Amino acid sequence: MKISKFRIQFVEIVPSKLKDGVLYVCINCNVIVHKCACGCGEKTVTPIDKKYGWKMTYDGQTITLRPSIGNFSIPCYSHYYITENKVEWLEKYHKDKSKKGRFEFIKKFLKR
Ligand SMILES: [Zn+2]
To answer: Taking residues 86-106, what's their average pLDDT?
Structure first.
Protein backbone atom coordinates (compact mmCIF):
# COMPACT_ATOMS: atom_id res chain seq x y z
CA MET A 1 0.00 0.00 0.00
CA LYS A 2 1.42 3.33 -1.04
CA ILE A 3 1.56 5.76 1.83
CA SER A 4 0.54 9.37 1.35
CA LYS A 5 0.58 10.44 4.98
CA PHE A 6 2.42 9.15 8.03
CA ARG A 7 1.38 8.97 11.65
CA ILE A 8 3.99 9.73 14.27
CA GLN A 9 4.89 7.47 17.11
CA PHE A 10 7.52 8.51 19.62
CA VAL A 11 9.28 5.44 20.94
CA GLU A 12 11.95 4.60 23.49
CA ILE A 13 13.33 1.90 21.25
CA VAL A 14 12.48 1.13 17.65
CA PRO A 15 10.15 -1.90 17.55
CA SER A 16 11.24 -4.88 15.52
CA LYS A 17 7.87 -5.09 13.77
CA LEU A 18 6.99 -1.90 11.97
CA LYS A 19 3.52 -0.90 10.81
CA ASP A 20 2.83 0.69 7.46
CA GLY A 21 2.42 4.43 7.54
CA VAL A 22 4.03 5.04 10.92
CA LEU A 23 7.09 7.18 11.53
CA TYR A 24 8.83 5.78 14.58
CA VAL A 25 10.74 8.60 16.17
CA CYS A 26 13.38 7.60 18.69
CA ILE A 27 14.97 10.67 20.24
CA ASN A 28 17.10 8.52 22.59
CA CYS A 29 18.85 6.94 19.65
CA ASN A 30 18.58 9.89 17.23
CA VAL A 31 16.80 7.99 14.52
CA ILE A 32 13.53 7.85 12.63
CA VAL A 33 12.50 4.53 11.15
CA HIS A 34 9.61 3.80 8.81
CA LYS A 35 8.55 1.33 6.18
CA CYS A 36 9.19 2.61 2.69
CA ALA A 37 6.29 4.78 1.53
CA CYS A 38 5.94 2.92 -1.76
CA GLY A 39 4.51 -0.06 0.06
CA CYS A 40 7.39 -2.42 -0.66
CA GLY A 41 7.72 -3.05 3.07
CA GLU A 42 11.42 -2.29 3.34
CA LYS A 43 12.66 -0.69 6.53
CA THR A 44 13.97 2.81 6.00
CA VAL A 45 16.34 4.24 8.57
CA THR A 46 17.04 7.95 8.76
CA PRO A 47 19.55 8.85 11.45
CA ILE A 48 19.18 12.36 12.81
CA ASP A 49 22.57 13.97 12.67
CA LYS A 50 23.87 17.46 12.13
CA LYS A 51 26.51 16.56 9.59
CA TYR A 52 25.47 13.49 7.65
CA GLY A 53 21.99 12.65 8.76
CA TRP A 54 18.57 14.16 8.49
CA LYS A 55 17.06 17.09 10.23
CA MET A 56 13.68 16.77 11.79
CA THR A 57 11.26 19.61 12.31
CA TYR A 58 8.46 18.87 14.74
CA ASP A 59 5.69 21.42 15.10
CA GLY A 60 3.77 19.66 17.83
CA GLN A 61 1.65 17.72 15.36
CA THR A 62 3.63 16.91 12.27
CA ILE A 63 7.17 16.11 11.26
CA THR A 64 9.16 17.41 8.33
CA LEU A 65 12.32 15.57 7.38
CA ARG A 66 15.09 17.02 5.26
CA PRO A 67 16.81 16.22 2.98
CA SER A 68 14.81 13.82 0.84
CA ILE A 69 14.63 10.12 1.56
CA GLY A 70 16.23 8.05 -1.15
CA ASN A 71 15.90 4.33 -0.80
CA PHE A 72 19.11 3.69 -2.63
CA SER A 73 19.74 0.30 -1.11
CA ILE A 74 16.43 -1.36 -1.88
CA PRO A 75 14.99 -2.40 -5.23
CA CYS A 76 12.15 0.14 -5.41
CA TYR A 77 14.51 3.17 -5.55
CA SER A 78 11.82 5.28 -4.00
CA HIS A 79 12.65 8.89 -3.44
CA TYR A 80 10.48 11.29 -1.51
CA TYR A 81 10.25 14.09 0.97
CA ILE A 82 8.32 13.82 4.17
CA THR A 83 6.77 17.21 4.72
CA GLU A 84 4.37 17.72 7.61
CA ASN A 85 3.85 13.95 7.70
CA LYS A 86 2.90 13.87 4.01
CA VAL A 87 4.82 12.08 1.31
CA GLU A 88 5.94 14.18 -1.63
CA TRP A 89 7.20 11.90 -4.36
CA LEU A 90 10.33 12.79 -6.26
CA GLU A 91 12.02 11.27 -9.26
CA LYS A 92 13.35 7.80 -8.66
CA TYR A 93 16.59 7.74 -6.85
CA HIS A 94 19.84 7.42 -8.76
CA LYS A 95 23.26 7.04 -7.28
CA ASP A 96 24.70 10.41 -6.59
CA LYS A 97 28.28 10.69 -5.43
CA SER A 98 27.61 13.91 -3.60
CA LYS A 99 25.55 11.91 -1.12
CA LYS A 100 28.17 9.27 -0.50
CA GLY A 101 29.13 10.66 2.91
CA ARG A 102 25.61 10.16 4.10
CA PHE A 103 25.44 6.60 2.84
CA GLU A 104 28.64 5.67 4.59
CA PHE A 105 27.31 7.25 7.71
CA ILE A 106 24.08 5.23 7.55
CA LYS A 107 26.00 2.02 6.98
CA LYS A 108 28.09 2.68 10.07
CA PHE A 109 25.01 3.68 11.99
CA LEU A 110 23.26 0.42 11.14
CA LYS A 111 26.25 -1.59 12.30
CA ARG A 112 26.25 -0.09 15.78
ZN1 LIG B 1 9.83 0.96 -1.49
So the answer is: 74
Q: How far is the CA of 41 from the centre of ligand 1 (A)?
A: 6
Instruction: Give the pLDDT of residue 94.
Output: 62
Residues with CB under 5 A from ligand 1 (ion): 36, 38, 40, 76, 78
pLDDT for residue 45 is more than 80:
yes
Q: Taking a C-beta distance cutoff of 8 angstroms, is the pair 70, 99 a contact? A: yes
CA dihedral (41, 2, 103, 27) in degrees, to 10, reads -80
What distances in angstroms separate CA 67 from CA 5, 18, 19, 88, one per listed residue?
Answer: 17, 22, 23, 12
Domain boundaries, the chain: 7-97
